[in-house]
């Protein structure tokens, strides 16, 4: 298996010829790594992150922080990142910041830049990132006195910050909960308490709860929330209190990345343990284990981690109807294996995934149809009636989650002789969050896991 930077343009997926056995380690959580990088930069001490994720998204975040004058030392071999917190002060007054296709970097860095009094910052990304929503955050920063030049609320954007005043602002968050998380993390730097009137439901999202729990863990007061009616709430964030972060903080294993391997027994039988993954993690995507239970997998928790196993003779699993609104990053994981499930699968609550690395609903419908499945969709749902699988080359549309999800389906031994029937175009897109994904999968197939 080549290094991820040397993958062929189209990668054959070799099926498993025996049930999966063993355990795997997945990378640290992207969501937590990038949040901790921001929070560490806002603290007034040096903080070392252990088990940190090294991927395109986290490297982009580190690069942007360095351009803003925040010292970050990295050791990829030891999976550590050491951030010299500057108490929220950005030394650099000017920077051209490239965020690639990283939504967390785009939203969090933009909010961080707005905390500086004076300067000019340009933020831009890939052509696809220029299509991803930024407007709710940019409008909120305008209300705080920041000068904002952008094309209809998308990247590229030029910021002329004057610090955060505090007071009451309005933010529309239906397009992405990251817009709210970005504001929350920098809110303690405001001159006065920040009252955020939220519409769009982001305050209910697990990723916002993750942001808040990290803030509380590191010394910020609990935020109060007042319902306003018409699906709006008022969040109050106290200003003036510094982040108090221990010198060393461990990053949890990525629950979204774990979903691919926990699903594997549904495709090839057997059992697998994801090391270090426990129900107490901050990540809402751990709830995907409940989805797996509904399909027929047995999921248990032990001292080593979380184990998924298929009871003997229970293939195929069951098709289900499920709302993925709270765990939408995992909807492609289930959608990709629906050709192997018994009965129809109906996935709902996924309209906002149309604005991510790709339109995930449309992309999954297209690739499953190519694989011979009967698929229909609406703005907020995908419905799959499984049929005979047609061997194909699938296109993940440049989306890491599409690629990894479809690769799990490709592990099915369709010809019963271990020969590949699926190829995946542009497999290197997995480097966004899981550069070694295909190597880990290969080791499992060859019984080289621990």
CATH topology of the largest domain: UDP-n-acetylglucosamine1-carboxyvinyl-transferase, Chain
Oligomer: single chain
Strand sequence of the main sheet, in spatial order? 2-15-17-16
Number of strands: 23
Biggest sheet architecture = 4 strands, mixed
The tally of domains stands at 2
**Discrete helix count:** 12
Rg, please? 22 Å
Roughly what is the average pLDDT, rounded to an integer? Answer: 95
Separation of termini? 18 Å
What structural class do the secondary elements suggest?
A: alpha/beta
Q: How would the global form be characterised?
A: globular
Q: Can you characterise this structure?
A:
The protein has helices spanning 30-42, 56-67, 103-113, 135-143, 178-186, 206-217, 255-268, 288-295, 331-336, 360-370, 400-410, 437-445; strands spanning 10-13, 23-24, 46-50, 71-75, 80-84, 94-98, 120-124, 147-151, 154-160, 167-172, 194-199, 224-229, 232-237, 248-250, 271-275, 298-301, 305-309, 321-323, 345-348, 374-378, 381-385, 392-394, 422-425. It is α/β, with parallel strands linked by helices. The protein has two domains: 4-27 and 254-445, Enolpyruvate transferase domain (UDP-n-acetylglucosamine1-carboxyvinyl-transferase, Chain, Alpha-beta prism), CATH 3.65.10; 30-237, Enolpyruvate transferase domain (UDP-n-acetylglucosamine1-carboxyvinyl-transferase, Chain, Alpha-beta prism). The longest helix is centred in the middle third of the chain and has 14 residues, at 255-268. The two termini are 18 Å apart. The model has no long low-confidence stretch (mean pLDDT 95).
